[in-house]
Write a structure and sequence with these properties.
The complex is a heterodimer.
Chain A: H1 3-24, H2 29-56, H3 63-80, H4 87-117, E1 125-129, E2 132-136, E3 146-149, E4 159-163, E5 166-169, H5 171-174, E6 179-182, E7 187-188, E8 193-194, E9 199-203, H6 211-220, H7 228-261, H8 268-281, H9 285-304, E10 307-309, H10 312-319, E11 321-327, H11 328-332, E12 338-344, H12 349-359, H13 366-375, E13 384-390, E14 394-399, E15 402-407, H14 409-415, E16 427-433, E17 436-444, H15 451-460, E18 465-469, H16 474-484, E19 488-490, H17 495-508, E20 514-519, H18 525-530, E21 533-537, H19 543-548, E22 551-553, H20 559-594, H21 600-619
Parallel strand pairs in A: 11-18, 11-20, 18-19, 20-21, 21-22
Antiparallel strand pairs in A: 1-2, 1-3, 3-9, 4-7, 4-9, 5-6, 5-8, 10-22, 12-17, 13-14, 14-15, 15-16, 16-17
Helix pairs in contact in A: 1-2, 1-4, 2-3, 2-4, 3-4, 3-8, 4-9, 4-21, 7-8, 7-9, 8-20, 8-21, 9-20, 9-21, 10-20, 12-13, 15-20, 20-21
Chain B: E1 2-8, H1 12-23, E2 28-34, E3 39-44, H2 50-64, E4 69-71
Antiparallel strand pairs in B: 1-3, 1-4, 2-3
Chain lengths: 625, 72
């Protein structure tokens, strides 16, 4: 509890004690009134003050105003009717304060929980100074400094290992605690926990640009992209309070006037009392607090499982996803190709691979990297000149003075070179040297171990259409699609074609449903932004993906997509439950009050009770699996 | 230029109202108030002195919740 909360608790306890004392003490008359007034002021002075300030600042209708008018009204009524029942005003104020205290504690607690789940912020970095380890603030470490990370410590900054080897726990980032072995030369990202050995890192980024800081910023600024539900609530609150005040006024005036005109007794005080009760019920707090709290808890809970959602708007959209479009390479498949077969026309197979690997040496395309890996020898880059990469086609370069073209069938067709027609499964990379066809290298990209299970899980979740897009050949695409059980496949797509496909799908789907695109964040930024929701996968260490996507999966497990949708749906369910429940109870009590069935005690119980239940329900969003 | 400040705000509705009010302050290009993280993110118009703008922002926020505080 913080200072404000402790103060409020003290006032609540004092008031409760004083109210009990006054009930047994035989004070009467004016003294009694004064004593009760003192207790009332003790519990309600801040509300009265805020209500007054609100009026002075031109903000008349807020909850403080409602509570002030209702309780003061009850007090005045007790004096007018000479009932001496001043307890009502005090009780209403007391329960209101209890509700506020509870709300503040609950919100503070879930705030802390979520902060603990997203415990990425490193407290210090170790720098070696004259043989001594010094602890410094990570924000003060310049790029290129050498820092030391002890076992058990969090990596404070992104960097490259320069000394030592160890295993890293990536759980704080991915939610999955698989140790990852690192050694000299490996890039490592902040937020991971060093498990076994001492590591020396050369930092490559400032703290603000480091992975941990970026992720924290993303989660914290998630609030700025508000969902429709949240916008609805804030718009609702804006019209709700004035409307209720008007209704209360009508309730106080119209029935007595009508009764007068009909020649009956006006019963002014009865209707005034009902109007005041009306005001007590009307506080919009339960609704206003519980919806953002649910989203916050949902986003926090997802974050702790390695799913970063950039705003409640995307959480909402994710829950409505019916079309899911996957990029193949690196998303459903491992994205690292193994060479299955080399078919050379004349030169030795080894030589063909060397040409291909050298020509592709500057490219970061998964196929290029696989060729480089398959070649497996260090490069002498000076052997390669005039490299030109054409997206969706391939690469041309001059290797050892020979004009080399490496790419798919489109590339060869563009150059007017006939190729072996490929009948085999897999991806064929064709090589031409000095304008003559030299042969092809057949590569195969295996599906990820959990990809088939992920597709099944998504179908079980009621995703209507799962589509796979790829730049790969139809044969390779079909093989993967069959293995995974995906029926809609579009192959041989250039990056621009993928955007077109997604646009066609967007036009095709029903209104009110959403389309999500899942890619690895490399080369597919336009598609990620064109889809209703762009999901980037395996983003650990990839800034581009974090920037471009709406939902970022730190891990590269396709199962996470289904999990993200599950969390989003669970969260939206709670949002609807809370909306319907709080509004339903409010309107029920407002109706009961208008016909005079409830009194002010019930009213305050309804108000605080609904709020407590809604908040407890909202916090459940943190734990959705 | 965008800056994030911690803000002390007690009610969710007030956070929404503060966001709206702060948006109208001169020198503020965009602003969001997150009740849950107790953070206020302000994007300033070019050439504005953040400190001066924030004083005005605090003033309008205090009108909504008298005991609100922004750390700037």
């Amino acid at each position: 509890m913080n200072r404000k909360q402790r103060k409020r608790l003290t006032r609540i306890l004092l008031t409760a004690g004083a109210a009990i004392l006054l009930a047994v003490l035989p004070v009467t008359g004016l003294l009694r009134l004064a004593a009760y007034l003192a207790v009332y002021l003790l519990i309600g002075y801040d509300v009265l003050r805020k209500a007054l300030l609100g009026i002075r600042n031109g903000r008349v209708f807020d909850e403080n105003f409602l509570m002030a008018v209702a309780t003061l009204g009850a007090f005045v009524l007790a004096v007018l009717t000479k009932s001496g029942d001043y307890n009502e005003a005090i009780a209403v104020m007391l329960f209101y304060q209890i509700g506020e205290l509870f709300q503040s504690i609950a919100v503070g607690k879930s705030r802390k929980n979520i902060a603990a789940l997203m415990d990425l912020r490193p407290d210090h970095a170790n720098i070696e100074k004259m043989g001594q380890l010094c602890r410094v603030d990570p924000e003060e470490v310049a790029v290129g400094s050498i820092i030391v990370v002890q076992p058990g410590e969090k990596l404070p900054l992104d960097g490259v290992v320069v000394e030592g080897s160890s295993a890293l726990n990536t759980a704080p980032l991915t939610g999955e605690s698989l140790p990852k072995d690192v050694t000299v030369g490996d890039s490592v990202v902040s937020g991971c926990v060093n498990l076994t050995g001492v590591l020396k890192l050369r930092t490559t980024k400032e703290f603000g640009e480091s992975t941990a800081a970026k992720i924290l910023e993303l989660v914290e600024s998630a609030a700025s992209r508000k969902s429709k539900a949240e916008n609805f609530i804030s718009r609702f609150a804006r019209v709700y309070t004035p409307a209720v005040c008007a209704a209360a006024l009508a309730l106080a005036v119209l029935p007595p006037v009508a009764a007068l005109m009909l020649g009956n007794a006006p019963m002014w005080l009865t209707w005034l009392y009902r109007a005041l009760t009306f005001l007590v019920i009307s506080c919009p707090c339960a609704l206003v607090i519980s919806i953002p709290l649910t989203f916050f808890a949902g986003i926090g809970g997802a974050g702790s499982r390695g799913i970063l959602i950039k705003g409640s708007a995307y959480l909402e959209a994710l829950a409505q996803t019916k079309y899911l479009v996957f990029d193949k390479t690196g998303t459903l498949t491992q994205g690292s190709f193994t060479v299955e077969q080399i078919r050379s026309v004349s030169m030795p197979e080894e030589k063909l691979l060397e040409y291909a690997a050298l020509a592709e040496c500057a490219s970061s395309h998964p196929i290029s990297r696989s060729l480089q890996r398959a070649w497996g020898k260090p490069f002498d880059r000076s052997r390669v000149t005039k490299i030109r990469e054409t997206g969706g086609h391939g690469v041309t370069a001059v290797v050892d003075g020979d004009q080399v073209a490496v790419g798919n069938e489109k590339q060869m067709a563009a150059l007017g070179i006939p190729v072996f027609s490929d009948t085999k499964k897999g991806t064929a990379v064709h090589v031409a040297v000095n304008g003559n066809y030299a042969g092809q290298i057949l590569l195969r990209d295996l599906p990820k171990p959990r990809a088939a299970a992920a597709v099944k899980a998504l179908q079980a979740q009621g995703i209507q259409k799962i589509v796979m897009l790829t730049g790969d050949s139809p044969a390779a695409a079909q093989t993967v699609a069959q293995e995974l059980g995906i029926s809609h496949v579009h192959s041989r797509l250039l990056p621009a074609d993928k955007v077109e496909r997604v646009e066609a799908l967007l036009a095709e789907k029903e209104n009110g449903t959403k389309l999500a695109f899942v890619g690895d964040g490399i080369n597919d930024a336009p598609v990620l932004s064109r889809a209703d929701i762009g999901i980037a996968m395996g983003a650990l260490g990839s800034d581009a993906a974090i920037e471009a996507a709406d939902v970022v999966l730190m891990d590269d497990d396709p199962m996470q997509v289904s999990r993200a949708i599950g969390i989003a749906r669970g969260c939206m369910k709670i949002v609807y439950q809370n909306t319907v429940f709080s509004l339903g109870v409010k309107f029920l009590f407002l109706a009961l009050c208008a016909v005079g069935i409830t009194n002010m005690w019930f009213a305050i119980f309804a108000d605080v009770g609904v709020m407590v239940i809604a908040v407890v329900n909202a916090i459940r969003a943190l734990k959705i699996k | 230029m965008k800056k994030t400040y911690s803000i002390e705000v007690d009610c969710a509705n007030c956070a929404n109202l503060m966001e709206e009010a702060a948006r109208k302050v001169a020198g503020v290009a965009a602003v969001t108030v997150s009740f849950m993280t107790q953070k206020m993110t302000v994007e300033f118009c070019p050439g504005q002195e953040p400190k001066r703008v924030m004083q005005a922002v605090l003033k309008v926020c205090r009108k909504i919740e008298p005991d609100c505080d922004i750390d700037f």
